[in-house]
Structure to design on (97 residues):
């Protein structure tokens, strides 16, 4: 997936230099999307995501972005990877549907 393809897939980041969002959650999602567009997919985070997600309910969201979000949630919250998976599902339902 090219940088342009990743940019088109973003819900919040549209190439701006600074986040236009004052809502804390949307601002964080903007930052993660900006990082993903810049850095690209990480095979390590994709493999980690695939190890926990057996039935992907969000085929329209690029796997690299979902993997990044899962990685960040699992590293910044208590409860481990299975709890992170539940939080990721809630986040995707609320902000990406």
């Amino acid at each position: 997936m090219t940088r342009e393809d990743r940019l088109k897939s973003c819900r919040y980041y549209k190439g701006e230099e600074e986040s236009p969002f004052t809502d804390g959650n949307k601002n964080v999602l903007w930052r993660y999307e900006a990082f993903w567009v810049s850095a690209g997919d990480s095979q390590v985070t994709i493999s980690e995501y695939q190890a926990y997600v057996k039935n992907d309910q969000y085929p329209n969201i690029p796997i690299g972005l979902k993997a990044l979000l899962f990685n960040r949630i699992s590293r910044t919250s208590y409860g481990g990877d299975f709890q992170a998976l539940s939080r990721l599902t809630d986040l995707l339902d609320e902000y990406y549907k």
